[in-house]
């Protein structure tokens, strides 16, 4: 559809909405209102954009459900005859889907659409103040005592949301899929391309299963198959051993003479209780370390902190411990995370408290223990999704999967062993020595943009994509140095440092 035709269609739809009284609170489910037109900047140039509001049922399975509104950002390609639009699906859950800055190479040929995620974006946000407060506990964050406190906070926040009128059963992957489909039809598009990351790849896969005629091609980055809202301790351990091998081959590893895996294991099992007057909370250190190791640049900073701790300098561990109270509470909209995760991947037969401990592995699974272990003590009252949205089935959608070989969040093996066999028109590229989604976009951005644009244009795959891009383990300003700056310069510098770490984690 040409830009002019799309413009006319959207204007007509908006006019009809106004003439029929479809404004604000009175807007019926399924309609879209164009709130404004303006510019969208991706950092290099500005594009024409439209900002819409989609009204949808909170729970489509309940005929008496209230309506909620979801924002949509539609960025228009300057191309007079663009290819199919790209619908973007970010990771999470519990993260906004409206923050992406698409590249010029994609916007040169495609409109880009971001449909807000219910539970995070729009009129209904599942905030959990009790959980956020419990995450700041002075006790060991991953201990049974603190996890029990967080479990009680889950129950309290769920009860508060229900009291406010929220229907938690409406905040599922199934409902997000239908939001995207309603947005597609309301904006007047035919089949679309999907570009998804991490949790968003789960939405993209099942969208293709449920609405195959609505998808032309799909690119998935950091693939999250069904069941993988649980981070497995064994996979984390394998990835850390791989990092240790890369470290041993690097100039930094050879110069230090340290064996990375064994060094980290020693520090974790003899972690100091404080550095100077700053407490070191083992659970917080483990959790922040794990989140930072998703991407190789921040992973190098984590390894540097453990190396320093092995030499008797625990300042880097203290910085990560302090940073936890800044990072974790605001890392997700926790109610949305719980709703999407529990409805999709809850397995009552698993003992997450036992499985996520460090017994048998060096690191355990900190985020799984934090989420699933606390929910084992608590409760998030939501129905499990129908099997159709939990079980892998064959999908004919042409799909390209990009995975990092050292991705601790969504290991490449998950995509290869679990999802790829169900994609007869699928292909996986393992990017050597890349971590999670951020690495795929930032380590060699031009290569990634070329791969994605080429596949969406004509289904081609760049044969040079598997070339390795070695990890740089060198660290300029590491956590030990930042810790000492905090001590010397005081509270303002400490706040700046901790805020900077929260940005790194995000």
Helix percentage range:
40-55%
- Estimate the global geometry from the Cα principal axes: globular
- The number of distinct helices, counting runs of at least 4 residues, comes to 20
The poorly predicted ranges are 1-25
Structural domain count: 3
Q: What strand order characterises the main sheet?
A: 1-2-3-5-4-6-7-10-11
The CATH superfamily of the largest domain turns out to be Alpha/Beta hydrolase fold, catalytic domain
- Cα-atom Rg, whole angstroms? 23 Å
Count of DSSP E strands?
Answer: 11
Helix vs. strand class: alpha/beta
Beta content comes to: 5-15%
**How far apart lie the N and C ends?**
36 Å
Q: Can you tell me the CATH architecture of the largest domain?
A: 3-Layer(aba) Sandwich
- Average pLDDT rating: 91
CATH class label of the largest domain = Alpha Beta
Largest sheet: 9 strands, mixed
CATH topology of the largest domain: Rossmann fold
Question: Which features characterize this protein?
Answer:
alpha/beta, about 500 residues, about 45% helix, Rossmann fold, disordered N terminus, two-stranded antiparallel ribbon, nine-stranded mixed β-sheet, 20 helices
Task: Summarize this entry quickly.
The protein has about 500 residues and is of the alpha/beta class. The chain contains 20 helices and eleven strands.
Task: Please characterize this protein's 3D structure.
With 506 residues, the protein is α/β, with parallel strands linked by helices. It folds into 3 domains: 3-125 and 179-226 and 394-458, Alpha/Beta hydrolase fold, catalytic domain (Rossmann fold, 3-Layer(aba) Sandwich); 129-165 and 332-377, no CATH class; 258-331 and 476-505, no CATH class. The chain has 20 helices and 11 strands. The strands form 2 sheets. It has a 9-stranded mixed sheet with strand order 1-2-3-5-4-6-7-10-11, sandwiched between helices.
